[in-house]
Amino acid sequence: MKPILLVDFGSTNTKVTAVDVEEYRVLGTATAYTTVETDINEGLENALKILEKTTGPLEFAERYACSSAAGGLKMISIGLVPELTAQASREASLGAGAKVWKTYSFQLTKGDMREIEEYHPDIILLTGGTDGGNTETILYNAQVLSGLSYDCPIVIAGNRNAADQCEEILKDRSVYVCENVMPRLGELNVLPAQKQIREIFLKRIVQGKGLSEAADLVSGIIMPTPSAMLAAMELLSEGWEDHPGIGELVAVDLGGATTDVYSIADGNPANIGTVMKGLKEPYSKRSVEGDIGMRYSVHGILEAAGDRKLSLLSGINRKRVAELVDFLGSHTDYIPDNEEMEKMDFALACGAVETAVSRHAGTLEQVYTPTGLTFLQSGKDLRSVKYVVATGGALIHAKNVREIAGKALYDPQTPESLRPENAKILIDDKYILAAMGLLSQYYPLAALEIMKKEIADYGHYE
């Protein structure tokens, strides 16, 4: 069989991967600058020319692509109560591969509408109320959204008793109705909304952002890049049919603008006496830290980690740390070319990974009650997870990648953060995970076996 081409149109770079699905091997990878402002085909053609230097001329049987170019899939989510339907709405959006700019709760205000107009999201997810519960808020918000100045697709996934009325209120808009993201109190039902969001992405967003121009060179852009990453992590964790995966895992994708974290784990309390607080999170969870990135969002790392920690990690004094962060924030294409900048990048990557995984993982707090000491868990307990997978250009090209990835692990100094305690470090050093997520949609066994073969095992971090 002829090889398969897998393409990832990123916001900065276009990455191509050629694979042999019969022998379960990667034939070659290449990267070129993304040219979405002009003709996205240029970046793809340049990447293919670079690939050919490694592999020689190849004739591909099939070509598939994912994309986070042109800003990716930008969304806002709207719910009723922050800790319940608003969180469910956010989980649905993130799991669909979106970049969630903001989550609104309660009734939308005039200020909220101004923000939404300015942000100009690609899709709005409107939720609120359990089935048979509150209808007033979601109907009010539908009425407010009917005044949007542009035709933004709106997915209604709230109280089923209000769905028809919401659809009628928004009849002049592009409206899609699906099942409630939280039909009963504390019960998440995000898959129908995620499926609808991905369909809209394929039908409307890809075409609207000029990405459909790549149709001559690929069979189609089938999902947002974060969805491909999530699919890859699910496959690697769970396996395919009678071919086992590696088990529960946490993955970190460190980029220039954001840091994505994935966990494929149930995250249930480890101790019988621990009480869950808030919604039970999905088994396959994705979070995005929009303020944590190695270049565009480098100031967010400084703010979250603090100049003292970055100074200790890098061996650079605090004043100089601030100067270098300012430099990197204004030179987003900079690649370290001296020892000082390599140390700074190392410290920033450590701070980014620790911050992002800490935010993703659950927390444990002690509460004294009339019956004695009780432990409250919010989010997922990831302490028993056995693997941490690291990917992203800032990670895989770093000299101290094992130490950086190790910052995802449990720290006794912050015992309330339920991060993995004794996990092995796996590195996606060929940058193939998004490609394998794509491949998994058509050749899941090949994708699984390639990941098992190609992802580097760096062992336990001490």
- What is the name of the CATH architecture of the largest domain? 2-Layer Sandwich
- What is the molecular shape? globular
Q: How many separate helices? A: 15
Q: What structural class should be given to the helix and strand makeup?
A: alpha/beta
Low-confidence stretches: none
Helices and strands, with pairings:
Layout lengths: L3 E6 L3 E8 L4 E9 L6 H16 L6 E6 L6 E5 L6 H11 L3 E6 L5 H10 L3 E4 L9 H10 L8 E3 L3 H10 L5 E3 L13 H18 L12 E4 H14 L10 E6 L4 E6 L9 E4 L6 E6 L8 H8 L1 H8 L3 H13 L8 H22 L2 E7 L2 E7 L8 E5 L1 H4 L4 H5 L18 E4 L5 H7 L4 H11 L1 E5 L2
Parallel strand pairs: 1-4, 4-10, 5-6, 5-7, 7-8, 8-9, 11-17, 13-16, 17-18
Antiparallel strand pairs: 1-2, 2-3, 11-12, 12-14, 15-16, 18-19
Helix pairs in contact: 4-5, 7-14, 8-11, 9-10, 9-11, 14-15
